[in-house]
Design brief:
Length: 373
């Protein structure tokens, strides 16, 4: 039993409370120097999906970022903070807005560390990753504890997708639009860049149609930490009430020998998650019921059971974000709102993920409705 994950309670984002809880989380694993060499260069990567303040539960809370920065300062590290959020329009301008509205810019200024943009890249395997990785000795990843419309959960492995440079994210969605294929790409990224330490912000979590404005916040009051992202996501899924085989990323990563996805082989330090009595999370509409169907039935019905995005005209602000992010260019901006060309749509839900107004929901095929999915 080599995989180890720590789970610690943290009941608020008050700075002193977060600092102590995060320290406890890391100390249960042997302390920060068990992962990071003193005086080294460290890239801290939060999950900054979009330009929304922390109370939306979409992005890693700035106080979690602050707590990590202060822990690294104690061992004399040179720290940079950065992320590559979902992209629409002009890349650098959008990132500046995200840094401002998520509170990350303020924290980095107050702590005197450098905030960087992922504007330089280097091609690795099938994708370009930020060149900031080449300039640092270690990566610390700070995901958010959330459900995800396309990948079921967004946690330790999925957070690394933000290392992909700029608009190439949409190219990967376009080229690998089947969930199983996209999961392999996410695992490819994890295999290429393994964080030295990952700390999941589960103080304010998200359930339902996450990972953005379509989801619902849920006070969970937990921090999770570990170096094995597969084990972390497995524990996260267990807390949510999800069987580990339903999470395609952990299944694929375990097959490659990149981590542990069997809960009985993971040593959990801190809280006994079975005694927390956490009600099961509400899962995304596209996966909550279909994931429970027998494998043979799913294969037979997969061409008839379909899910598509659709727009609520009452909520749509005609901002055009969905139009610019769509990897298949199947969304048109009209005077009355947006219109989808479903002949081109691959149901990647990038549009829903990036909609700042929560105006995009899920449309079901007739068969899906008839059988109650």
């Amino acid at each position: 039993m080599n995989a180890k994950v720590s789970v610690v309670k943290c009941n608020s984002y008050e700075p002193a409370v977060v600092q102590q809880a995060l320290r406890n989380t890391v100390n249960l694993l042997g302390g920060i120097t068990n992962f990071i060499k003193p005086g080294s260069r460290v890239l801290v990567k939060p999950n900054l999906l979009m330009s929304k303040p922390p109370e939306f539960g979409i992005t890693t809370h700035p106080e979690v970022v602050r707590a990590v920065i202060r822990l690294l300062k104690e061992i004399g590290c040179k720290i940079v903070v950065g992320d590559g959020p979902s992209v629409w329009g002009k890349y650098i301008e959008n990132v500046d807005e995200v840094y401002e509205n998520t509170g990350i810019r303020k924290v980095t200024q107050e702590e005197g560390v450098k905030l960087i943009t992922f504007d330089k890249r280097r091609m690795r395997n099938k994708f370009p990753l930020t060149a900031a990785l080449d300039e640092c000795d270690y990566l610390i990843s700070l995901p958010k504890f959330k459900t995800h419309e396309f990948t079921l959960i967004t946690g330790a492995i999925k957070n690394l997708f933000g290392l992909v440079s700029g608009t190439y994210k949409t190219e990967l969605h376009k080229n690998y639009f089947e969930p199983a294929e996209f999961a392999k790409i996410l695992v490819d990224i994890y295999q290429e860049v393994k964080p030295a330490l990952t700390i999941i912000d589960g103080i304010l979590a998200m359930e339902g149609d996450g990972p953005a404005t379509g989801g619902k916040t849920r006070q969970l009051n937990l921090l999770l930490a570990g170096s094995d992202c597969v084990a972390l996501d497995t524990v996260m899924a267990k807390i949510m009430g999800i069987d580990n085989y339903e999470v395609l990323t952990t299944k694929e990563a375990a097959l490659r020998g990149l981590g542990e996805n069997k809960i009985n082989r993971i040593k959990i330090e801190g809280e006994d998650i079975d005694k927390l009595n956490i009600p099961h999370f509400i899962l995304p509409a596209t996966s909550a019921k279909i994931s429970k169907l027998p494998g043979v039935l799913k294969k037979i019905l997969k061409f008839l059971i379909r899910y598509y995005p659709y727009s609520s005209r009452l909520k749509c602000t005609r901002c055009g974000h969905c139009v610019q992010v769509c990897p298949k260019s199947c969304i048109l901006l009209k005077k009355s709102g947006i219109k989808f060309d479903y002949r081109k749509c691959i149901a990647c839900f990038c549009c829903q993920e990036t909609c700042p107004a929560a105006a995009i929901a899920v449309k079901k095929s007739i068969l899906a409705k008839l059988i109650g999915l």
